[in-house]
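Question: Hello, beginner here. Any chance you could explain the protein record under this note? Any guidance would be welcome.
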Amino acid sequence: MSIDHKVKILKDICQSLNEHKIPFSLGGSGLLYFLGIVHDFNDWDLVLYCTESEAKAALLHYNQTQLKNSGIYTSSFFFQVTHQGVKFDIMGYFGVKNFGEDYKLPYKVSKHLGIIPLGDVKDWLKAYELMGRTDKVDIIKSATQ
């Protein structure tokens, strides 16, 4: 699947969230892609700052699959949206609890790429550290130092 197709579908989802006035930001590997840190990714990670019912209503026209937080994740809700083969992890108030720390990703948009609000790479670095994702931590540190 082409990156152009993935970006087109991302913009469609962003438009729907904006129409419903839902605060959100793009994180994960999609954020790293737009920052030029990685060159590919599997899915989009969107962190929403609203109730689960508001999120589901905004994305009503997309195929939704309910997922459960597991292990160290403390998001208030978690589901997946799939549209035209493109997958999105939709996380409410994304959180990670590990190493004695309970970290909630703050609502922060580092910049907008048109309709796409990018999260803050420093916040995602901290989240990846708590997730034990040393591969992502090393990539981010290498690219931002």
